[in-house]
Amino acid sequence: MRRILFALLLLLSAWPSLAAAQGYERDRFEITPTAGYRTGGELSTSDSELFDVDVEVDESDVLGLKVDIPIGVPGLQLELLAMQQESAFTSDLGLFGENIELLDVDITYYHAGLLWQWGAGQVNPFVTISAGLARIDPDLPQVDAEDRFSGSLAGGVKIFFARNIGLRLEGRGWWTVIDEEFGDDSRCCRDYRYNDDLYQVEATAGLIVAF
After folding, report:
1. CA distance linking residue 32 with residue 166, whole number of Å
2. Does the pLDDT at position 49 exceed 80?
């Protein structure tokens, strides 16, 4: 038993160097096509000519791309990302009613941030924080797309199957600032104003290509 424990201790102490010898470095350039599912997003109307009820963003699939660039600090990467959701504004009719789809809307986030990862070898947990723009584009000719400031916080794990290929699993929360002039269009005199900011959450998986 002592020999087995001693051998396990030796293996654990040697694991970081063994992983490095196999090529599982943490600080590399990474490109990660990503897919997942996003939910959440409720807007309470205060004075609207477009909607006269509170609306929700329908939950739906998301697609995007993440690019992670090493910046010379161990474990830190500059992260650039774009994530798009094709969804719809819906009206919630309560516990015994069905949601009514009002109109289609695309919500796309363009962010830059910092990712910090740790761990040795093939498995690297991480956290990341970012900020940028949320582009909200309703499918209605009389209403222009709007760009609003947004932030996000995420965490997850990177699992490498080979030196250059891995899987990224992530959970992320989004926050977007909505002000009272959102959606204003002087050409058609239609707008939609809201009291609350927009909050969404998503779960995604991506294929990492590292080099």
Report:
1. 9
2. no
Helix (H) or strand (E) holding 13: helix 2-22
Residue at 2 is within a domain: no
What percentage of the chain carries pLDDT values higher than 70? 72
CATH number at residue 163: 2.40.160.20
- In the numeric block, the tokens 């290509």 are attached to 209
183/194 Cα distance (integer angstroms)? 10
The string of pLDDT tens digits covering residues 62-95 is 999 999 999 999 999 999 999 999 999 888 665 5
Residue 3 in domain: no
What pTM was computed for the model?
0.78
- Note whether 157 and 167 are within 8 A (CB): no
Q: Say if 39 falls within a structural domain.
A: yes
3-state helix vs strand vs coil in the chain, percent to 5: 10, 60, 30
Whether residue 16 lies inside any domain: the answer is: no
